Amino acid sequence: MANNFVFDPSMKFTDPEKILFAAGLGAGQSLADFGSGSGFFSLAAAKIVGEQGAVYPVDILESALNHIAAEARMKNLRNIKTFRADLEQPEALTDIPVGSVDAVLFSNIAHQIKNRANLFAEAYRVVKTGGKLLIIDWNAQPSPIGPVAAERISEGEVQALAAKANFKPAGNLPVDIYHYGLMYIK
């Protein structure tokens, strides 16, 4: 799949702290950031959950995880533990125990995954009963930024995948005009 856009972190069209606060993430909680990339959400979450909380960035790219670890060291964030995993594989994330995290985040990852059912199954496996699944992805219609429309996953398709994985709808997240944000509860 071609990456047809360049991400500039200074373009804060998505505010990770605002989204995570709206989702109810707070001090002492834990979040698994599936497809964490450069840590845009992981680093914000680490500040929110504080030293008593934990953030688990998960990505297939070791270079992305190394970047997050370096940023965490520079910012003195000691509550981040990275995991390398291919989330398209069944039970790829055995390092995070069953039912152990308060929230799982998919930010701009669902549209990149071919085995989406497994992505949702892994989220269901690691999130606590009553825990949340937070999903942010590109709106289906074409826009001047983001992947081409044919590569995007619709909000309806995400809703169907979440329902099939036994997540219950819990509301929307405050995202920008280019994305949709959905929240589910296990």
From TrEMBL:
Pfam families: Methyltransf_31. One of its GO terms (molecular function) is methyltransferase activity. It comes from the Bacteria. Residues 30-139 form the Methyltransferase domain. InterPro entries: Methyltranfer_dom, SAM-dependent_MTases_sf. PANTHER family: 2-METHOXY-6-POLYPRENYL-1,4-BENZOQUINOL METHYLASE, MITOCHONDRIAL (PTHR43591:SF24), METHYLTRANSFERASE (PTHR43591). This is Methyltransferase domain-containing protein.
